[in-house]
Amino acid sequence: MTRHPVLQTLSDAFRGWRRRRLAMAELRDLTARHPDALARTAGECGLSTRELKQVVARGTGSDALMHRMMTVYGLDAELLAHDSPELMRDIELACSLCSAKRRCASTLKRTTARAEAGGFCPNADQFAELSLADTR
Fold first, then answer.
1. Which helix (H) or strand (E) holds 65?
2. Which of 38, 68, 99, 122 meets the CB 3.0–4.6 Å disulfide criterion with 94?
């Protein structure tokens, strides 16, 4: 049975909201019970505890969008992570904290994503610069 697009969108939004709420509840519980574990986990991710909390609050999906946008710019995420792990961490953090995930996903469905990214993507300038460096 095919769902109506509006119902599918609402259902997806509710699931995303629920996942974020559960993740935030787990993070609050971890903070209350084991504050040192939270700091350790954040450190293992290369984040401060504040950044980790922000990333969890923003929800999931940014990694897939980031990889797709990097592909639009002709960039290889694995190669960049190997060659410049600090830069890749900064890019990942910017994508994780981005508030334009819906717009990003919508734009990536079109062939104009690279041209439009400058209007919302926190990494658009970085991606363009890396893309130019690749062609030199």
1. helix 62-72
2. 122
What are the residue ranges spanned by the domains of the chain? 1-58, 61-136
Ramachandran assignment for 61, one of left (phi > 0), alpha (psi -120 to 50 degrees), beta (any other) = left
Long-range contacts made by residues 14-17, C-beta under 8 angstroms, separation at least 24?
16/59, 16/60, 16/61
Residue 84: enclosing H or E segment and its boundaries?
none
pTM over 0.85: no
If one counts every other C-beta atom within 10 angstroms of the C-beta of residue 102, the result is 12
Q: What is the 3-state secondary structure (H, E, C) of 1-37?
A: CCCCHHHHHHHHHHHHHHHHHHHHHHHHHHHHHCHHH
CA distance readout (Å), 67 to 2, 64, 128: 29, 5, 14
Digit-by-digit pLDDT tens for the chain (136 residues) are 566 776 766 676 667 667 777 777 777 787 778 778 878 878 887 778 888 777 777 766 788 999 999 999 999 999 999 999 999 989 988 998 888 988 999 999 998 999 999 999 999 999 999 998 866 5
